[in-house]
Specification:
Layout (H helix, E strand, L loop, with lengths): L9 H7 L13 E6 L2 E6 L3 H28 L4 H5 L20
Antiparallel strand pairs: 1-2
Length: 103
Amino acid sequence: MPTRSQPQSATQVIKSLSYSGTNAIADGYLRFVQSGTSTRVQVDANAAADAARLAEWEFHNAVLAMKEVVRGQYGADSDQAQAVGLKKKSEYKRPSRKKLVAS
């Protein structure tokens, strides 16, 4: 990876990141920033990891929302709720009083 003192073309930088997409700017790898009268190019080498993490987070939130919709539509004690991985309300153990041992 080049240091700040070794300017390279954007094409060389993109190749060094093993980027295989078609638009590095839209994908978040490259960004142009105005600095006084000049323009700087910022490179985000972790753009792919960030995008994958964001997609995983969005999928996780979608699954949680789907489970809440199923619970709301069919009820907390339904077979449909159990089918999406929720525990039926009737399967929870009821709390019981502990008996004291007389001594």
